[in-house]
Amino acid sequence: MTLEEYSENLEKCMIAQLELFRDFYSSEERIRQHIVLKNWPELDRELIGIQKYADKIDKAETERSKIYQAMKLYCSDDRTESFYAFVSRYCPDRSASLTSLYRDLKISVMKVKTLTLRIDAYLSTVTSAVRKVLDEAFPMRKGTIYDNKGVNRSASDPPFVLDRQL
Question: Are the C-beta atoms of residues 18 and 100 closer than 8 Å to each other?
């Protein structure tokens, strides 16, 4: 395989990976909306679907890495330089498109991370609020459990009951 073919394959792989990240972000946005709207059946379906995206992204990343490593091996370049420097040195005709795709991939990863953090913060806030409400409503409940003989048993974790319709 020539360097031109490697760079063409790398570009195609990055385009496919970028599209997968965009689909993943859209799916994660739908998950956020289902959580906010308390649409649990749709949330469950979306969670199953998002795992498929994650697997596809993992495969695409592995493929992109293999192509990039093969390019470095083809060029006999074992330097630990940035992707941008490598592409500009060995693929000047595709340099602009490859660096643009690489930037877009980095931005897509940041967008997914940001949305994931937003979902996590929302769920943490809701969980904390519900726990505080339960603590106020049942102040005597401190994690003690009684078995059917009336003997105290302590719970491994504090009990938590959540009404899905809350």
Answer: no
Q: Read out DSSP for the chain?
A: --HHHHHHHHHHHHHHHHHHHHHHHHHHHHHHHHHHHT-HHHHHHHHHHHHHHHHHHHHHHHHHHHHHHHHHHHTT------HHHHHHHH-TTTHHHHHHHHHHHHHHHHHHHHHHHHHHHHHHHHHHHHHHHHHHH-TT-SSEEE-TTS-EEE-SS------TT-
Residue 92 backbone phi and psi in degrees, to 5:
-60, -30
CA 52 to chain centre: 12
Minimum mean pLDDT range among 32-36, 72-76, 77-81, 147-151: 147-151
Q: Please give the Cα distance from 68 to 62 (Å, whole number).
A: 10
Of all residues in the chain, the percent with pLDDT exceeding 70 is 85
